[in-house]
Amino acid sequence: MMMQTPLTMTQMIRRAEKFFPKKEVVSRTGSGIQRFTYKTIAERTKRLAESLQKLGIKRGDKVGTLAWNHHRHLEAYFAIPCSGAVLHTINIRLSPQHIIYIINHAEDQALLIDPDIFPLIEKVKDQLTTVKAFIVMCAEGEMPETTIESVYNYERLLQEASGNYEYPDDLDENAPAGMCYTSATTGNPKGVVYSHRGIVLHSMALGMADSAAVSEKDIALPVVPMFHVNAWGLPFAAVWFGTSLVLPGPYFTPKLIAELIEAEKVTITAGVPTIWLGLLKELDENNYDMSSLRSVLCGGSAAPRGMIKAFEEKHGIPFMHAYGMTETSPLVVISSLKSYQEELSSEEKLNIKAMQGILVPGLEMKVVGKDGEASWDGKEMGELAIRGPWIASGYYRDERSDEAFRDGWLYTGDVVTVDEEGFMKIVDRTKDLIKSGGEWISSVDLENALMAHEAIFEAAVVSVPHEEWQERPIACVVLKEGYKGTVTKEELYTFLQPQFAKWWLPDDILFMEEIPKTSVGKFLKMRLRDQVRTMSSELK
Ligand code: AMP
To answer: What is the pTM assigned to this prediction?
Structure first.
């Protein structure tokens, strides 16, 4: 029998310190770009762990972060779990009510806060029931003025630490290491707790050659926020593997992302489609050297086929579509072509790349249709269910767990088809599918088709109630800058007609200035549906 050594996160930061002390973390904060070696990051991480202990943080205590992607947040990513506490990353774009709810629900004992987010916390401070220490993540000279007691400066705490701290060796691999709340359709956000073991195994999956293949040779730029499913786990894998990191900091623009990729010779970057649509526009308008990029990882919502084509064929940048959720750490499937699929035509290959991909090793999936498991024929739809060592087994102290977690499986609420090759395609969220005359219409398919039109920047399709057909689709489109006023509805219908059955075509196409988005940059279909339903009833 093999040894039972625990899969804990301490081995990750220790490995970076021992094997990759010279490798770099480039960090952009409110005060500019700084460079650190992993040696320095590892030392500072231990100082932070020691400071938290001095402030009374014990094993199992939750420590919240309200921060952008930068080196101090990276240090918190390891100092908190490696000392036995729980890293609770808080989505700073949520409403103050939801932020108050999740801090109280998680029972955070301390908060690490970016200076620009501090005013928000100051306003709601009296409603926070468990927080004993507020640590502002900036240099001493950048401290905001405040009347709150128990406010500490991050750099001062690190200076005052002895530097003799060592991580405990007896952490349990099944102990909680992190947590993150995901927005619910209705009601308060739901908490997901990540174990050390889950994070270690998920990081291994990110390193697999047919997955994201994160390695020491990479320079990784996580654009996806560190408060959105741990920046998809990239910072954990990067530190463990000695990958250089580029952290883009607050309020970045597509221009800044393009400049960082060029200047730092980034090889892999990750973000939601909205980010990549913005970058594409920047690349179309200005010249950058993007030749270092080997992979643009895209997930969070469906990557439009037209966008993948533009990245790959117009700009020569390899694109990689992936799917996951907060509940799944997040990586579940990833679109990497099989060896024999490389022989296909470029259009056929694009069709495959536009699908979300195949299951990563280590997980199990099933597709539950109307009458049991759906067949893998690329046509029959069903709800995707998943299980595995980095999949949550329930929501944190939440009665809503039973809706999604049944018989040892996570029911994702995503409707999918799987083809004969095992490639999964998201058809829709269960609640976003459009049911017209008893048949399903995929809003995602219509959106993808519209976004392939040269004049369209973004498109979202939602349903409106219909007396005869129950529901009908309405398309909302945002035109690219130079095309405003030049494209008619009729032209867009002519473009869609050859691609879809007649009954799939939207009942109307509405031109909009922008499509409402969620806190993590996805289409906010609920709000859009309300807007469209109000607009269409006003028209009647
Ligand atoms: P979140 O927990 O905020 O990351 O949201 C997870 C949800 O985002 C999933 O359940 C899917 O509905 C959606 N999603 C994630 N990745 C993709 C993708 N590649 N294509 C389509 N939808 C996606």
So the answer is: 0.91
Ligand 1 atom closest to the Cα of residue 322 is: 19
Q: Are 528 and 462 contacting, i.e. CB atoms less than 8 angstroms apart?
A: yes
Distance in Å, CA 302 to ligand 1 centroid:
8
- Active-site residue flag, 440: yes
**Cis ω for the linkage preceding 330 (within 30 of 0):** yes
Q: How many angstroms is it from 490 CA to the middle of ligand 1?
A: 32
Please check whether the domain covering 434-539 is classified as CATH 3.50.50.60.
no
> From its phi and psi, is residue 367 left (phi > 0), alpha (psi between -120 and 50) or beta?
beta
**Cβ of 461 below 6 Å from ligand 1:** no
Is there an atom of ligand 1 within 6 Å of 325 CB?
Answer: yes
Is 390 a known active-site residue? no
Arithmetic mean of pLDDT, 253-266: 98
Q: Is 36 in the pocket of ligand 1 (CB under 6 A)?
A: no
Query: Average model confidence (pLDDT) for the chain?
Result: 95
CB-based contacts of 535-539 (< 8 A; 24+ apart in sequence): 535/510, 536/464, 536/474, 536/508
Cβ 504 under 6 angstroms from ligand 1: no
- Residue 335 reports pLDDT greater than 70: yes
CATH topology for 363-429 is Luciferase; domain 3 (2.30.38)
Q: Domain ranges in the chain?
A: 363-429, 434-539
Comparing 363-429 with 434-539, is the CATH topology the same? no
